[in-house]
Amino acid sequence: MTSAIQYQGRKARRAGSEQRRRAILEAALRIIIRDGVRSVRHRAVAKEADVPLSATTYYFKDITDLIADTFTLFAEQAMHDVIEPFRDQAFALIDGVPAQMSDEQRQSLLATLAEMTAAYVINEVHNMRDHLIAEQAFLHEALLDERLRELAAVYKQKQLDVLAGACERLGSKEPVLDAEVFFAVLYGIEQDMLAAPDKYTEADVRARVAHTLEMMARTTQAS
User: Fold this and answer.
1) What positions does the domain HTH tetR-type occupy (predicted)?
2) How far apart are CA 200 and CA 206, in angstroms?
């Protein structure tokens, strides 16, 4: 992950300078969420961050560097604050059951995982909408800016690794493939609910997640 975290703009030399640089990036991210990437301009960011215009041009002479570094900060924060905590919660749940489970234990575990995952998705849609909007803007910008493509790939792979690890712990014979399928299902649900937040209830999400997990479990048992 660390190798892909490459900031483009001028580096801060002192702690106070780093705080101002970060404030500029956080202001740019707020503009992106509220008004879109194309609204990011030096003057608009300076106003949003409440810093002199000269500060934004000092750290980011090129507006594309400012945009790239804004999404780099977003990805760094998301991996630390959103993805890794979910991983820890899921792994703790899975590791808390015996390696050799009865059918009843497996069904109970899958139901709990479905409930936990559904709650995670619902929380993102209703309480972390800005995060999802920023994520969509980031992934779209990565299509246009090759400097962000490696970071976008790492960001997605970080999520796939979490899911693959969970699938492996559940006994999957193809944890990578199962992780890709599960990721696609979750991503599709989030996309639908980002456009229409009330499209699914938590029970609807839980049913779709549970169905996917049960299909994966049947494949594992059959093999």
Assistant:
1) 18-78
2) 10
For residue 189, pLDDT beyond 90: yes
- The residue ranges of every structural domain in the chain are 2-222
Residue showing tokens 């069904």: 107
Identity of the amino acid at 32 = I
Query: Tell me: the pLDDT tens digits for 46-90?
Result: 999 999 999 999 999 999 999 999 999 998 899 899 989 988 998
Whether 158 has a pLDDT exceeding 50, the answer reads yes
Averaged pLDDT, 2-23:
69
Six-digit token string for 177? 């493939």
CA atoms within 13 A on the CB side of 173: 7
Contacts of 117 (CB under 8 A, 6+ apart): 90, 186, 206, 209
Q: CA 76, 117, 94 angle in degrees (round to 5)? A: 95
Query: 2-222 belongs to which homologous superfamily?
Result: Tetracycline Repressor, domain 2 (1.10.357.10)
CA gap 6, 68 in Å, rounded = 9
Question: To the nearest 10°, the Cα dihedral for 62, 51, 46, 142?
Answer: 50
User: Among all chains, which residue has been given the structure tokens 């962000």?
Assistant: 148
**88 vs 17, 24, 162, 166, 180, CA distance in Å?**
34, 31, 9, 10, 19
pLDDT above 80 (res 208): yes
For the range 97-101, what are the long-range contacts, defined as Cβ-Cβ under 8 Å and sequence gap of 24 or more? none
**What was the pLDDT predicted at 106?**
84
